[in-house]
Design goal:
35% helix, 16% strand, 4-stranded antiparallel beta sheet, 2 domains, 11 helices, alpha/beta, 7-stranded mixed beta sheet, 13 strands, single chain, EC 2.6.1.9, binds pyridoxal-5'-phosphate, Aspartate Aminotransferase, domain 2
Length: 351
């Protein structure tokens, strides 16, 4: 049996390794659990599981439209933002066309490009930041998609809104920018601005968000994109009829307005960051100031060995060798107790 030529470059995703009982701080999940409002909505909806879900996620889209003050036609909902990236590639990318992204960033952009036979060009980060000049210079007539994560995973760095705007101004009309804002809810820097404010100014911009991180719903699989209706409505062509399940749709609509939970999550993250920065500074570790719910730290040792060592002691973190950052790790900010344990493990590395 022969597989498609394009798939020969694709290897199945390998999830972060962990072990039963270990504290998992390797996938940027919410350490406070799922949104309680979402859980309540799921309980209410269980009796309706005999019904197919709304294929257009209409109720959720109305809630999103209210939230962002955009028309409902600007939205599309997916089975996680991962599905949205693949839908975007499936809608716009012709085999052999180019996809531009960074070397040290989320691997799903590469996957989506390869899945549809794209040629993926990875531009090196510059000092941990997307190098927008080098990305623009790499664009050709054959470029179809550009993927930027803002804030970036795994570095936690961000591009300012005016940088995104000037990038878009210089981007040729035939190229779509996919701006992945999976962590935007965590960003507090005054120069951070969401791409959702730019959606109606640039008909070649798609902004994606997820319920997996701040809302604590990674296991349900739900994310969404916002763009000019002429873009989103085309993406519907590539979408399966019932891509997002009933429970995910109703949970997400409630989670969006679970302000108490969102605030608690943000407080935990900012207090954790403060504690971790102080501890890392004291021990002279280099890290990128993060606008997300994780910190990217230069450990100065083989990250896979550090990973094994920490896992033996009951904590899973993310080694960044697969991101081309051999001696870096990514730590998801946890509870105060978990953060203290992490710092204790770090100290033990130097003993
Ligand atoms: C976690 C993450 C996502 C979320 O993906 P889902 O499929 O919505 O769970 C998207 N982009 C980045 C950069 C992420 O780290």
């Amino acid at each position: 049996m022969k597989i498609r030529k394009t798939l020969r470059n694709v290897t199945p995703y390998i999830a972060g390794k962990t072990k039963p009982g270990a504290i998992k701080l390797s996938s940027n999940e919410n350490p406070l659990g799922p949104s309680p409002k979402a859980l309540n909505a799921i309980q209410q909806e269980l009796n309706h599981l005999n019904r197919y879900p709304d294929g257009r996620s209409g109720t959720l889209i109305s809630a999103l439209a209210d939230h962002y003050k955009l028309a409902p036609e600007c939205f599309i909902v997916g089975n996680g933002s991962d599905e949205i990236f693949a839908l975007i590639a499936g809608t716009f990318l012709e085999e052999g066309q180019e996809v531009i992204t960074a070397d040290s960033t989320f691997s799903e952009y590469n996957f989506s490009g390869l899945l549809f036979g794209g040629h993926v060009i990875k531009i090196a980060l510059r000092d941990g930041f997307f190098d927008t000049e080098a990305m623009l210079a790499a664009i050709t007539d054959e470029t179809c998609l550009v993927f930027i994560a803002n804030p970036n995973n795994p570095t936690g760095t961000f591009l300012k809104q005016n940088e995104i705007r000037s990038f878009l101004k210089r981007l040729p009309n035939h190229v779509i920018l996919v701006l992945d804002e999976a962590y935007a809810e965590f960003a507090t820097h005054e120069d951070f601005g969401s791409g959702c404010d730019l959606v109606m100014d640039f008909p070649n911009l798609i902004v994606t968000r997820t319920f997996s991180k701040i809302y604590g719903l990674a296991g349900l699989r739900i994310g969404y994109a916002m763009a000019y209706p002429s873009l989103t409505q085309e993406i519907f062509r590539a979408k399966q009829a019932f891509n997002v399940n009933l429970l995910a749709q109703c949970a997400a609509a409630e989670a969006l307005n679970d302000h108490d939970f969102i605030q608690k999550t943000l407080n935990l993250c900012s207090e954790g960051k403060k504690y971790l920065y102080e501890a890392l500074d004291r021990d002279n570790y280099f890290y990128y100031p993060s606008e997300a719910n994780f910190i990217c730290i230069r450990i100065g040792k083989d990250s896979k060995e550090v990973f094994d060592d920490f896992l033996d002691q009951g904590m899973a973190i993310r080694p960044l060798a697969s991101f081309g950052m051999e001696d870096w790790i990514r730590y998801t900010i946890g509870t105060q107790e978990q953060n203290e344990e992490f710092i204790r493990l770090l100290k033990s590395l130097r003993e």
